[in-house]
């Protein structure tokens, strides 16, 4: 049996593969990107379900429109417009997707013929890298700094490659690094991108989860013709129901994505769409999210404090203002993949940096997640990692 | 903005596009493939939801495994093994998909590089044609007869085209024609296909909905190495929750599909998977399905009787033993698309044959669905169509 080249070249998800191991009861896992179960308003969802069944009956269980449930699209439009001045998003600018992961694959299907270019943050979200792989693109990595994208590199990439179709970014509480693009960086990116016939994707699953600083406006939304914003209910209500959305004022693009959506799964689970809309209409989402934020902030602080205490000073790490991740950079030349295998022996899991890069392997970086462990477990896990890092550090020095 | 060639060549779904028009209140629609709402066991599903939330709590709302919910995979395996002697399906041979539509797109992604061959029934399911289009295949149409595939044509296709990757079939209560492959036809297909390195897909969303004759064993399942069976809960429990499955003993193939699934949407809605499993575990599915069957049989008979009464004798149509569709063949040279526009003026909708073919247009066939209208509405709709058909028939004769 000869399989398609594109699937043979598509990496299996490292995160999901190691989650199987990391999911073992005695492993302390900083590997996944799992929201804390506190973020699932189970009781309010139960009420929303009962009410939805009472009001809508069989409609919850029938086939429905590819574009998504209109009141949910209206809610998303209102939420976005309320969150940023000058936006004028309408329900018809929105397609509900089966998680925002599906939006990634569909946009790639719609834009990329084999060999076409995609600008990827380096490092960038591994799920996006995987989804894009299926369309056999050429990846153009642009370095991610603490401020955001390296704008000079970005401009060079766009200038020297005619076939770049889109730029993929996670500007808020970036996955995997936890950093947030600054206002200045966003404006500088906009000033470059506006001159090219290229789509700017801002994937924003974590934007609501901010505990420090002020919300920063989107890079492209509201001012760039080919702006695409992706959002999700996974981190603020439930990931299990797989509900995300794609927002763009480019109608031609959205129509093509709708065709891809018909081919992919006809429409998004309508039961879940109506239930989530009922929940959102009847509950105070901000109050709910503020509980999630308070929890994640305390968990992030527990991890940062433990890292300061247990990690060698040569190890650098980011300090997120929100979201779910911290990014660790080891001394030059130290392999995080080697550390991963040693850590697994000590029953601690994280995601080594390799799957987040399109142009490098055997990197010295890795991703830590703090949202799904208690402060006590976080301290214990970081302590074990710290011990290993001190050993690595000593060994390295002995070798030098 | 330059979009990908593959999306520009992918047809938008004719059915879903006309459903928007056909959905208007005063239109009698035989166009959709919508199950009758009676097939949604709303009260039992509500009980299943309550029980699932009580027992599983936050697990219903968290991320979950790409392969699907293990007890549901076990249920599907048991159901298949019980339904046919000699099958030995295990849960690990099963992947839960976001509707069986998703299985179509993923198998195509996994198997087809641009130009690779797909054998399609002519006519065949338009949703499959659409999903496959995204991978830019070469379609090899094989004529569908009242008995099933034309086996001589199939053998010629396989012999003369080295690059054929899979054969797509709907052997039970076929969409769009309503026919069922005979036992003899299935055996003849097996005898040909077993000699080629090719996958045989048997898409079986309607197999449980039989009111006449005996269940016939699968063509390939249980005896063909590269057998793939697709199934769905859409027609027997609910389409709104988008739950289907893919079954194959080819582990390499299934692993590639799992990678494609990670890229497509990470995993299928776990809330819906657990709820449907609760429903199936606690209720008598056969008793529920027998109610659906009784209803559809009476609707099918109402339509067949009305067609015998109102259609000109020159018009031929199939007489299904189950499922949801009747296929109408007009006199040679009469365009069903022309008829469609005339019928819409009379507020009756159906799906003209064109989108079900990969090698022809302007055909003289069309599809009727009877599951979503009462016998009275069916009679009125067929009466209106009959009037138009007599006019067409007369006009044609006058022209000759």
Automatic annotation (TrEMBL), chains A, B:
Say if the entry is tagged with keyword S-adenosyl-L-methionine: no
Keyword Transferase among UniProt keywords: yes
Q: Which GO terms describe its molecular function?
A: pyridoxal phosphate binding; transaminase activity
GO terms of biological process kind: alpha-amino acid metabolic process
What cofactor requirement does the entry state?
A: pyridoxal 5'-phosphate
| Gene3D superfamilies, per database record | Aspartate Aminotransferase, domain 1, Type I PLP-dependent aspartate aminotransferase-like (Major domain)
Q: Which residues form the Aminotransferase class I/classII large domain?
A: 44-385
Swiss-Prot/TrEMBL keywords: Aminotransferase, Pyridoxal phosphate, Transferase
Give the record's family classification.
Answer: Belongs to the class-I pyridoxal-phosphate-dependent aminotransferase family.
Subunit relationships = Homodimer.
Q: What is this protein called?
A: Aspartate aminotransferase
Gene source species: Ureibacillus massiliensis 4400831 = CIP 108448 = CCUG 49529
Organism classification: Bacteria, Bacillati, Bacillota, Bacilli, Bacillales
């Amino acid at each position: 049996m000869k399989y398609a080249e594109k699937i043979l070249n598509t990496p299996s998800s490292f995160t999901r593969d190691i989650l199987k191991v990391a999911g073992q009861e005695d492993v302390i896992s900083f590997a996944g990107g799992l929201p804390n179960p506190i973020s699932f308003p189970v009781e309010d969802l139960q009420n929303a379900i009962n009410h939805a069944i009472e009001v809508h009956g069989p409609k919850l269980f029938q086939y429905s429109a590819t574009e998504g449930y209109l009141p949910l699209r209206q809610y998303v439009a209102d939420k976005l417009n309320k969150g940023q001045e000058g936006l004028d998003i309408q329900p018809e600018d929105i397609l509900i997707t089966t998680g925002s992961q599906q939006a990634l694959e569909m946009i790639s299907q719609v834009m990329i013929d084999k060999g076409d270019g995609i600008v990827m943050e380096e490092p960038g979200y591994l799920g996006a890298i995987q989804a894009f792989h299926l369309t056999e693109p050429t990846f153009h990595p642009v370095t991610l700094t603490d401020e955001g994208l390296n704008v000079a590199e970005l401009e060079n990439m766009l200038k020297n490659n005619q076939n770049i179709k889109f730029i993929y970014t996670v500007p808020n509480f970036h996955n995997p690094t936890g950093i947030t693009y600054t206002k200045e960086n966003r404006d500088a990116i906009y000033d470059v991108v506006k001159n090219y016939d290229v789509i700017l994707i801002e994937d924003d699953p974590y934007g609501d989860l901010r505990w420090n600083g002020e919300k920063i406006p989107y890079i492209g939304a509201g001012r760039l013709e080919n702006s695409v914003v992706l959002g999700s209910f996974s981190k603020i209500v439930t990931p299990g129901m797989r509900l995300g959305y794609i927002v763009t004022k480019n109608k031609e693009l959205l129509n093509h994505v709708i065709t891809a959506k018909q081919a992919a799964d006809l429409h998004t689970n309508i039961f879940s769409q109506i239930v989530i809309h009922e929940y959102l209409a009847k509950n105070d989402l901000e109050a709910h999210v503020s509980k999630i934020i308070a929890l994640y902030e305390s968990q992030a602080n527990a991890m940062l404090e433990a890292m300061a205490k247990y990690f060698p000073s040569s190890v650098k790490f980011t300090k997120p203002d929100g979201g779910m991740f911290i990014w660790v950079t080891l001394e030059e030349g130290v392999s995080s993949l080697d550390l991963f295998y040693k850590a697994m022996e000590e029953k601690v899991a994280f995601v080594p940096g390799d799957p987040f890069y399109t142009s490098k392997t055997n990197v010295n970086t890795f991703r830590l997640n703090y949202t799904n462990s208690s402060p006590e477990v976080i301290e214990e896990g970081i302590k074990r990692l710290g011990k290993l890092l001190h050993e690595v550090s000593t060994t390295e020095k002995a070798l030098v």
